């Protein structure tokens, strides 16, 4: 892995967007669902592909299909996303009555749902 690849920043939003894209298999449909532009989704997907150093989807005329690498990445990150959501929920249950804790958990949870 080169230094350039390591320097790319990944966000949970980008990872979730990728997982959703593989499930929906259509950039236009995902863009519409998320209220975003298709070009932005395409640009972020290209960023993720540069970061991991692999093509993650095969783009077709009307839809897309995950490559083997794309399916493997989706499988791995879905496990992590579930764990993150679980930890946020547990945190919210523990600290939800604390004003600062409730504020933090709401902001974090909004980014992960």
What does this structure look like?
With 113 residues, this protein is mainly α. It has six helices and two strands, in the order ααααββαα. It has a single domain, classed as Arc Repressor Mutant, subunit A, CATH 1.10.10. 73% of the residues lie in helices and 5% in strands. The protein has a two-stranded antiparallel ribbon. The chain is globular and about 50 Å long.
What's a quick, concise take on this entry?
The protein is mainly α and 113 residues long. The protein is 73% helix and 5% strand.
On the 0-100 scale, what is the average pLDDT?
84
| CATH homologous superfamily grouping | Winged helix-like DNA-binding domain superfamily/Winged helix DNA-binding domain
- Enumerate how many helices there are, as a single number: 6
In the predicted model, the low-confidence regions spanning at least 5 consecutive residues are: 1-5
Domains, number: 1
Going by CATH, the architecture would be Orthogonal Bundle
Q: Whole-number radius of gyration?
A: 16 Å
Overall shape: it is globular
Largest beta sheet: strand ordering: 1-2
How helix-rich are the residues, as a percent range? over 70%
CATH fold assignment: Arc Repressor Mutant, subunit A
CATH class: Mainly Alpha
Number of strands: 2
Main sheet attributes: strand count, strand direction, barrel closure: 2 strands, antiparallel
Q: What fraction of residues sit in β-strands?
A: 5-15%
Task: Give the terminus-to-terminus CA distance.
Answer: 30 Å
Give me the secondary-structure category.
Answer: mainly alpha
Give the ordered list of helices and strands: HHHHEEHH
């Amino acid at each position: 892995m080169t230094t350039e690849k390591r320097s790319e920043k990944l966000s949970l939003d980008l990872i979730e967007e990728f997982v959703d894209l593989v499930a929906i298999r259509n950039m236009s449909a995902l863009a519409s669902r998320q209220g975003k532009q298709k070009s932005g989704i395409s640009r972020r997907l290209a960023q993720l592909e540069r970061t991991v150093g692999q093509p993650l989807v095969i783009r077709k005329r009307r839809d897309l299909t995950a490559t083997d690498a794309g399916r493997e990445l989706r499988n791995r990150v879905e496990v992590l996303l579930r764990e993150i959501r679980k930890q946020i929920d547990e945190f919210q249950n523990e600290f939800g009555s604390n004003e600062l804790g409730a504020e933090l958990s709401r902001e974090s949870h909004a980014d992960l749902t």
